Amino acid sequence: MDFSAHSIIWVLLAGLVIGAIAKLLMPGRNPGGCIITMLLGIAGAFVGTWLGRMFTGNENYTAHWIMSIVGAMLLLLLYRLIAGRRN
User: What is the reported pTM?
Assistant: First the structure.
């Protein structure tokens, strides 16, 4: 995996876009700012990859946009449930 500054910037931008789309698709109040949105999108890609591997049985499956957004939406739902209990 390439960890150059250029690839890290692209990962952060893709995470921001994925997280923003997930927040737009989820109704209700969305906690967190720009950094949380980026982390949500990046982690959503990992969750989407895990779900895809689990359901397809393909060990080489990697999440694309749709599964990354689905993963980010699941994480956003969990984040809301946890943050809602604290308040």
Answer: 0.78
